[in-house]
Amino acid sequence: MRRHRVCMVCDFFYPRLGGVEMHIWSLSQCLLRRGHRVVVITHGYDNRKGVRYMTNGLKVYYVPLVPVVDGDCMPTACAFFPIFRQILIRERITLVHGHQASSVMSHEAILFAKTMGYRVAYTDHSLFGFADAASIHLNKLMKFTMCSVDHAICVSNTCRENLVVRATLPPEKISTIPNAIDPSKFTPDPSARFPKGTINVVIMSRLVYRKGIDLVAPVVKIMCERYPNLHFIIGGDGPKRLLLEEMREKSQLHDRVEILGAVPHARVRSVLVRGHIFLNCSLTESFCIAILEAASCGLFVVSTAVGGVPEVLPGPMIKFAEPTVEDLTDALSDAIPLARKAVPSEFHAKVRDMYSWADVAERTERAYERALKAPPPSLVRRFQSKKPSIAHSGWV
Amino acid sequence: MHHDQQPQGPLTAHLVSRLESTEALLAEERASNQALSDELLRLRAGGATAAGGGGSSDGYDKDYDSPRPRPNSSAGTPVEGGTERARRQGRAEEERPRPPWQNVLYKRQPYADNHVPGSFLEKLVTNAYVRQPDLRLYVINTFAVTQQISAVTLFLVVFMRTQDGLISVGTMVMVDLLLLFGGYATVFLVSPKRNNAGISGVNGAAPGSLARLKGRIKHEGDDPYGRGGGSGGSGGGGVPLGNDEGASPRTAAGLADGNGLDDLSLSSVSSTLASFFLFLAILRIMAPVLRTLTVSYSDDTIYALAVTLSFLHLAFHDYSYANTSSSGHFQGTLSLNAAIFAAVLLASRLESNEKVFGLVLFALELFAFFPLARREVKRHSLLLHASVTSAMVLPTGLLLYLRHPTLFTAYLGTVVLVTVACPLWLLRVQRYKLRIEGPWDIAHVEAHP
Hints:
The complex is a heterodimer of chains A (396) and B (449). In chain A, 39% of the residues lie in helices and 19% in strands. Chain A is built from 13 helices and 16 strands. The radius of gyration of chain B is 34 Å and the shape is elongated. The longest helix of chain B has 29 residues, at 135-163. With 449 residues, chain B is an all-alpha fold. Chain B has helices at 10-29, 35-53, 82-95, 135-163, 169-190, 209-218, 252-255, 266-291, 299-316, 319-322, 333-347, 353-380, 382-403, 405-429; strands at residues 125-126, 436-437. Chain B has a two-stranded antiparallel ribbon with strand order 1-2.
């Protein structure tokens, strides 16, 4: 087996803790365990600068770029190039792996690396539409960058179709490799279900519009009226928290709806194991790792069938609904008897068999092999492929 | 690439027909460098072939690797070594067909991660809700813009001719009054009947005006729209104006809330007349102040300012209000202010108080009240809307031609550009419209009571 020396580039990395950050970290750990060399390049965070070593000798370069918006750097044109080249040479990198469409560093790294003749892989974690201004702009940028990529990875089949249309990549240049979770961190514990004697529904997400909190509020209200033994536990924080608190205030549900606020990552499990049912109302979702974590904790899942969510869990573990209040309440009603019957340890075992980072790392390795096998496009070819997407940028 | 995919159901048939129509559309675009469209076409063709052939003839599965054995895996094959495994797997492949690919992530499937299934991009929908562009609709909607340009031009040319002394005070005041009462009568005749339910936007056949009048008298005093005298006094306008329709004096912006034309009963007509004459008196008394307002400024400054303000007015005018597409609240406060300001500035260049009075009144009618009347006209009938437009363009053009032939050419060019060239242009660029929808779009949440 060929040993790769991989350089992961993304704006988003530890100390931030989100889906992308955890993905990069877990993937890097598993690749290290499989004998590859991995370094991560990200920008500096407050006093976290320079080179740091993390678990298992994962080397992280916090390069001196200043994040401006939402943890993203300004496009530097060429300022990032010298330090990036220095790192690639010093670490004797064989493959550069960028992450996330909204990461500026990742786009720049892909362009620079390809120009220096490195093989480039890219992982897309999110879905983007085609109608709003931000997406249109980003999709243009994607077309510009993606023709330099040797192989791309998407976290779900829906995400892959999305990327094909957005970046006009041939579909055989994209692999679908799902996310995974660490099942040992999400073990079920039916004895921890609290309050006792009720069916507890857990909702855990950022409280923002995209996560469908506008649906959650009426659903919680209606379900509490319909079933007197339902108890809701809502974790997470965000601008839509006000909506939920207003609903709780108006319907006098203080004893039946808990709003916990932000839950640190380490405490997510202790909240999840309190419930019987996990409710996800997202309006768009590329993969939805939250339902995986919940299922691993032995919760029955009720979710909106949006984006890549229907691909994640098999029928007996999840109940789907259209993103409407009526459909969600119906699905939740149907789920109550199913959740009573569900055996948490079986759920956990199934998730453990279905998803693991080791498997993701192995499949990513194969994707790297594909990237290395792909014929290197000549400079002229790169220009040509860029030209139709944006009139003049091919020659920039 | 051949299409041998059979439509399985109504949905598939629908998709296939959608694809074909899109393909026909896309074929036109190909010449115009639509890389994305080409790519979509290619992908669809590729997907269809893969589905039809059912095999791996396209080489998508070249680097297919066998799945790792899993307790729950559907395709559990014994695994020994690397090459051995591959050979066995290859032989097994020839012997029994692979299970069909499923769009799931939780199952190990005997396909490579970059396998392109036949159903690839099946849920992609392009241009689903795009209406067929209609040139007539575009042209009719440009009338609002043409009307406003004409109104501004008409005002400027009337000012020029007044300054030249070609329009006497008597003519001007006569024209003012004629316009005012003519406009009022038109609105009275064409305004759709509104009942207590407050349904606006009645666009159908209008019943006889007598019946309407009766209805109005019956509902008199109900005040179903909650319009008390609250909006009197201060409003967006800033210029204290009377109201020629409502019961209480209001600003032009206050008047223009769409309900200002509702109440046309007899008592309101009399009170309207009273407040109208009060307003006229105030304007007449203020005329000397307006006339000497800018005496210390040079003509050039005033003209430059007036022209700039006219453009400002045109840029910020609420055209959607006149096109009856907005909810009925006039949004063009800034543009109205600009127009009235320009009118006061220009009027201050005139030499007699009466002319100042006449010109400012003219400007108020043209910029503040006329849009309301035109909205009602358009609601009533499109034919009348078109005739009002031509009734504005022709005298404006004629007057301008007499005064300034060069400007007339510019005016004519603008009208042709707006009414003919721009709709044609819009129609032409419509074909580049490619609206892409798929399972990745954010679901819309309907407001729940």
